[in-house]
Amino acid sequence: MHEAAVNLAELERVFEKNFTERGELGASVSVWKRGEEIVSLHRGWCERQQERPWTAETLVPFYSCTKGLAAATMLMVLEEQGLNPDDKVRAVWDQFPIEQGSFAQLMSHRLGLAALDTAATTWDHDEVIAAVEKQQPNWPLYDESGGSGGHGYHPRVMGFMLDELVRRMTGNTLGNVWREKIAEPLGIEAWIGLPESEFHRVASLYPGKQSQADVGSEFYKQLATRDSLVQKAFASPRGMQSVREMNEPRAWQAGFPAMGGVGTATAVATFYQAACGAIEFFSPQVREWMECTRSSGDDKILCTPTAFSCGFQLDPLDSFGRKIRHHYGLSRRAFGHPGAGGSLAFGDPENGLSFCYLMNQMELCSLPKDKSLDLVKAIYLSQ
């Protein structure tokens, strides 16, 4: 067992360094352990004009960190419907394009629906779903020997598919079900579809700059290649391509389950306390679905090894069962999800620990960088 003995002094030093040396503008860090918030750091400004100080109550859009919240909602609904992740998607969605595809294969990014060939806009849910129903898989579900055909991150389409499934099972949007079944019972301030009454609390986001290291990576080479699978995946469906658009109230209000979450670091860290079982909330079955790895290996979209459970990301392992990176700390059981620009949140069931880092000065990155990763390291340092 890898015991997490949070080094508060080191955590505060790294948090301060992010401001003095790494261009942080406004940020929050929340760490919980066994039902108690043991760290709550917040500092900076909600905008470059320095008009609103950043506080513990500041809300910020956190892009793909939303996927963890959306996955938990989906899994909870599946259980309530008497279904499980190994059931076929067509049990709920007759027109789903892959007959043999299961909920688990969908949620672990294996079904090859990351990029759409039919044009659709993020602002028209029905249009996106119609495009999904026409889509031929970007890669086969199984290889010639009958093994897995691999996996690739679905950055945008995933949210629309989960939303469609939740709508079919409950008659309500995923964002509304998230609030009703999870956020409100836990008393947390995180939304997938922000009410107008909370608009005044939202910090402005600022895009990151590309470094030479970024330019040379295979992911960014593919992202810049016209009509590559990577480029198409991050542009399907079209719209919401710029940070400027994410700063518009209609984006906060839209309730995009793959990228539209808005909330506080404390809220997201509290959610992961429940997800890892440190707060009694989710059933043991749902928590097992969150934690159990369903896909692992080279990611066809992110161009690096990744691992996923049903909707959550885990650190991938080498052939000896050792972590090849530590985005989610030292425990192999830890799971969570990053967000564009550097936000990061996870739960560690082995230690009863959860973590969330949110900020408004983004970095250009598909996976977490030093601003968040050095904070994670501090959690696992001995006192």
What does this structure look like?
- The chain is of the alpha+beta class.
- It has a single domain, classed as 3-Layer(aba) Sandwich (Beta-lactamase).
- Helices cover 33% and strands 13% of the residues.
- The protein is built from 14 helices and eleven strands.
- It has a five-stranded antiparallel sheet, sandwiched between helices. A three-stranded antiparallel sheet has the order 3-5-4. A three-stranded antiparallel sheet has the order 6-7-8, with no helix packed on it.
- The longest helix has 15 residues, at 66-80.
- The model has no long low-confidence stretch (mean pLDDT 94).
User: Per CATH, which architecture?
Assistant: 3-Layer(aba) Sandwich
Order of adjacent strands in the largest pleated sheet? 2-1-11-10-9
**Alpha-beta content class:** alpha+beta
Principal-axis shape equals globular
- Major sheet characteristics: 5 strands, antiparallel
Q: Looking at CATH, which topology would you report?
A: Beta-lactamase
The CATH H-level superfamily is DD-peptidase/beta-lactamase superfamily
What fraction of residues sit in β-strands?
5-15%
Tell me the name of the CATH class.
Alpha Beta
Number of contiguous helices = 14
Using the CA coordinates, give the radius of gyration: 19 Å
